[in-house]
Amino acid sequence: MLIFYLIGTHLTPRVNEEAHMDETTNMEQQYNRTDLVKKITSIYLQQIRYLVHFSANFKGYHRRSLTMTSEEQFTSLSKEELRHRLTPEQYNVCIRKGTERPFSGEYYDHKVPGIYKCVCCGNDLFSSDTKFDSGTGWPSFWAPIKDETIKEQMDNSLFMRRLEVMCSKCGSHLGHVFNDGPKPTGLRYCINSASLRHVRA
Q1: Three-state DSSP class for 188?
Q2: Which entry of 118, 120, 170, 190 is annotated as an active-site residue?
Q3: pLDDT tens digit sequence for 24-78
Q4: Looking at the domain covering 56-200, what would its CATH class be?
Q5: pTM of the model
Q6: Peptide bond before 102: cis, by omega within 30 degrees of 0?
Q7: Is 190 annotated in the active site?
Q8: Sheet strands (E) in 109-184
Q9: Angle between helical axes of 33-56 and 17-30 (0-180°, round to 10)
């Protein structure tokens, strides 16, 4: 199941073999082997298409100025406060720039109208009006509520060039943005459920 961590939006190596085996068992119980292969193949091909297009069109890809933000530069809230307030997975995603497993997050198939806020600071990030089913297993949006609600920075980890998406208010890691989304923007904001909190409209 290592392939799930080589084709995601931002990927974290597994260091706990026992936890990894539990995840493998859960995925195999949720999907039969044929469906599992189809889902893996679909996600993998999407990422390959993105990388090919990104390499050829990088100069015109991003629309915002790139802002450097790291775990050490996390400003609005103290990491110690967040460590006590967030779940371990939320902290790993938002502060340590980790990733949740595909098809495991609370909001990947969530269809209730409302606003998706930053789980750390409450900043309004995305609306259900721009949410769509990308088939990747992560919540996907074709635009943020406002351009200024997020900021982006270059992510060169894992031998890939991607644009990381962060909350503009507190710097929390949200996910990545790709240019294989639907109209009208053509963008796909691939966001971790763990970084979001949904509020009904």
Answers
A1: strand
A2: 190
A3: 455 555 556 776 676 667 666 666 655 555 454 444 444 443 443 444 445 556 7
A4: mainly beta
A5: 0.66
A6: no
A7: yes
A8: 114-118, 124-127, 131-132, 140-141, 150-155, 162-167, 173-178
A9: 110
